[in-house]
Amino acid sequence: MVEKIRVLLPVCMILCLTACGDRKSESSGKLTTSGNMATTASVSGGSSGVPDYSFNDFEPVRYEDVVWTAMNEKMPGKEYDGFSDYLPALTREVPVHWQAAEEDEEDAYQDEADAFRGSDKTVRQVFDLLEGKVRSVSLWDMTEDGTKELVIEGISSYPHMIIHKEGNEYFGDVFARRQFQSPQKSGYFWWGKGSGHWYHLTFRDKKFVMTAEAGIEAKTKENGVDIKEIYYIHDRKTDRNTYKKWEKENLTGEIKWYEVPERNA
Fold this sequence. Notes:
265 residues, alpha+beta, 8-stranded mixed sheet, 7-stranded antiparallel sheet, 5 helices, 15 strands, 13% helix
């Protein structure tokens, strides 16, 4: 079953748990989505327990001023060994295969994404198109396939970039600000504001696939002030205590970010 994600902007809205691409409802109730261009609507007075979407406090650096080969001064040796696998994509004209979006997809930043989605462009070219800067990087096996992905945090409409290496090829995807929050060592990341879901990302058949595992939907009550929270695990309603137990078992702490070294700093 194919569904599209659309941005909803009325007052007092609920999260649209959607994504562009295929959406399959399995027997477990788990939702699987390909692509990532879903957006979320804010709900005033949402859950106080959900992540915010603030950045770390590293100073942003222009892409051309980042000295990628000096990351060994920031990372432990074993971590840098994995990071060095991505140096060809960061320092040379090695293209990245950027995940395509659906043709009729709607997104607030779609005009900017049109320039590179579904194409082969270098990381530098994408940063030039987005007029972005680099704030930090992380090396993290977020797809849990034994290969660590490179996660770049920058300053642009799409401040998070995920790059996966398979053989000698690189595959990339980008996430808007609220689409990628509080990434966990266990592989989960939060998508939403006020209400939202914890997602897990996998990589198969040369594309990223997102799965919503657990989340919160916030609705306004009849008086338009109070918020009613509905909890989900694998797209099935559950109670708050069960949801909090899931969080405790699956959210294992945020990943480590490394500040990027700047030329002549």
